[in-house]
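Supplementary material to the annual report.
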Amino acid sequence: MRLMTRIQWYIIMALAIALAVTVVYFRYLTGQGGVTRKIVDTPALVQQIQQLNELVTVKYTIQKVIGLEEEKIPFGSEKVLLMVQATVKAGIDLGTLTTQQVTCASNSVSIQLPSPKITDVYVNEKETQVWDRSKTWWTPWVGFNRELEQKARVAALESAQAAAIEMGIISNAQQNAQIAIRELLRAAGVKDVTFQAAK
Amino acid sequence: MKRGIIIMVVTVVVLWAGCAGLLAWRRVRDAAMLSQPYAVKTPTGTNYVVQLRDVTIGKLSTGYVLLVTMRLENPNAFELELDRRNLILVDQTKEYYWPSMTGTQTPLIHLPPKSNLDKELLSFVVTDEALQGTLALQVGWRYMVMVKEARPFARSMKSGEFISFRGRDW
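Predicted assembly:
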C-alpha cells in the first residue's frame, strides 16, 4: 500500500515535470507564445509586400534660389532670379518584386529589395516666385524671353533633385521600405527578416 | 591737329566696330553650328531629325548639371518612340552619362506621325572633369553631336547658378 502510494507519487511528479518542460519550451524557447506557427508561403508573401507599394515613399521639400543667365546671340544677356520650392519623392517600386527575390526559411525571410529611386520631382507653384529679372542695358533691342522662367524652373528641379540625393533621400527610402516590410512580416509571424543589397 | 584727332577717333571707331562685327559673326556662326539639324537613320530604317537649341550649365554643390534643349521632328507617317536612355552624353575621357528620367522626363519620348517636339529637354548630372574638354551627345546610332568644344570650362559659378549658351564655345 505504501509502495503503491510512492509509485503514484513518482508518476504524478514525472507528468508534472513533463508538462512544465513542455510549457516552458513552447512559451520561451520557440517564441511563439502559444500561437500556432504559421507556414511562410513565398508567393503570398510577395503579394503582401507588393501591397505596401504606396507606403515606402519619402518626400523631401527643398527650397532653392536659382539664378539663370541666358546669353543672347550675338550680344547681351538676360537674367532671372527665382525662389523655388520643390518636392522630391523617392521610393522602392515593390511592384517589381518577384518570388526569386524572396527566400523563405522555417521562420525567417530574406528579401532582395529593388534599388530605391527618385519617383517624382515637382515645383510647388504657390511657394515659387520670381525675385528679379533683368537684361544687359546696352542691348535694348533684345527682348525678354518668355521661356526663360520655365527653363529656370527646370533647372530648379534638377538642382532640388541633386540636393535631395545629397541629403540622403535614397538611403532614407530604403530604410523606410525595410521598416515597413519588417513590421508587416512580424505581424504575419515571421521572426527574422533580412535584406540583401540589390544586384 | 584737328584732322589728326578726327582720323584717330574714326580709326578707333572703325576698329572697334570691326572687332565687334567679327565677334558677332563668330557667335552667330557658332550658334548656327550648334542648331544644325541632324537627320538620324536607325538600323531599322526609321528616321528622325534632331536639332539642338541651347545648352544650360548649372552648378550644384556636388558637381554640375547640364540641360540640353532640343527640337525633335518625326517626318514619318508612323509614330516613333525614342528611348531617352539612348541619348547619352560622352565626355573626352569616354565617360558616359545617362539623362535623368524623373518628373516630366519620361523614359520614352513619343513622336506622333509627321510632327515635332519643339522643346524636349535632356538633363545630365556631370562631374567637374567632364567640363575639362569636349562633350558630345549621342542622338542616335553612331550619330554624335558636339555640345561643347575642347576648351576647358573656366567660368567660376556659385551653387544654384545656371548659364545658358547657344553655341559650343563655352
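The first helix of chain A runs from residue 2 to 29.
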